[in-house]
Amino acid sequence: MSNNDASAPAPSSGRGFGRVLVAIYGIFALAATARSVFQITTKFSEAPLAYLLSALAASIYVVATIALARGDRTSRRVATGAILIELIGVLTIGTASLVWPDAFGVATVWTGFGSGYGFVPLVLPVVGLWWLRHTRSH
Amino acid sequence: MSGWYATAIIVISLLLVLWAGILLVIKRQPDLILALGGVLLEVLLLGFVIGGIVQMVGSDRDFARAEFVGYLIACLVVLPAAFLWARGEKSRAGLAVIAVAYLLLPILILRVQQVWEGNNVQ
C-alpha cells in the first residue's frame, strides 16, 4: 500500500470516503466469512440453503472489499460486478424471505433486506455503486 | 462477561463515537483524546478477553465456544486495524474509519455476551 500520495492523480475507489467504504465492506467480509465457516463446519445439515447463501454473500463481500481497496481499472470492474451481484442478492433474498418466511430455515445476512444488520447490507451496495460511479476517471 | 466492566467498555466506546462525530462535524483531524481513548480501550479489552477465556475454560456449560473466542479476538483486532487503515488518509475519511471502529466495538461486546449466555440468534 503506497501512502505517498502527495501528487495523487486520479481519485481511487480506495481513498477518501472509499477508506470508510472499504472498512465497512471489510467488516462484513470478515464477519460473514467467519460466521459462514463456523456454520458450514458445525451445522451445515440444519439449513444447507441458508448456509450456502451465507457463504456466497461472504465471498462477494471479500471480493468487493479487495477490489474496492485496490481500485485499479480491472479491480473497479470486478468491484462493480461483485456489488451488482450483492445488490441483486439482497433484493432477491430480502423479497423471498418476506414472501416465503420459512424457506431458508435460519436467517442469512440478506434476510429481510438485512434487517438483522441494521439494513446495512441493503444500503452498502447502493453506496458502493454510487462511489464507483463518483470516482470514475473521465 | 456482562457487568460493570463490559458496560464501561461500551460507554467509553460510545463516548468516543460521539467525540469522533463532533470532530467530523467541526472538520478537525483525529486528536489525542481519540488516540488515548483507543489505548485505554485496548487495555480494557485485553482484560476483557483474558477474563472471558479464563471464564470459558473454567466453565463446563454448553455454548458456542469457537464463536465466543472468534468474537473476543475480533474485539482486540478492531481498533489497531482501524487506526492502521485510517493512517495516511488526510481527509476526514480517516476519522470516519475510527468512528466506525468505535461504533463496532459495543456491537461486538454485545455479541460476546449473547454467545456467552447461549442466546444465539443464528
Describe what you observe in this structure.
The complex is a heterodimer of chains A (138) and B (122). With 138 residues, chain A is mainly α. In chain A, 67% of the residues lie in helices and 0% in strands. In chain A, helix 1 packs antiparallel against helix 2 (48-70), helix 1 crosses helix 4 and helix 2 runs antiparallel to helix 3. The longest helix of chain A is centred in the first third of the chain and has 27 residues, at 17-43. Residues 1-10 of chain A have low confidence and may be disordered. With 122 residues, chain B is mostly helical. Helix content of chain B is 78%, strand content 0%. Chain B is built from four helices and no strands. Chain B is elongated, with a radius of gyration of 15 Å. The model of chain B has no long low-confidence stretch (mean pLDDT 91). Chain A binds chain B through residues 1, 3, 5, 15-20, 22-24, 26-27, 30-31, 34-35, 38-39, 42, 106-107, 116, and chain B through 64, 66-67, 70, 74, 82, 85-89, 91, 93-94, 96-97, 100-101, 104, 121-122.
What letter string, H or E per element, gives the SSE order of chain A?
HHHH
* Residue windows where pLDDT falls under 50 for at least 5 positions of chain B: none
Average of per-residue pLDDT values of chain A: 87
For this entry, what is the oligomeric state of its chains? heterodimer
**Most extensive chain interface and residues per partner:** A-B, 24 and 21 residues
Number of strands of chain B: 0
Put simply, the count of helices of chain A is: 4
Shape of chain A: globular
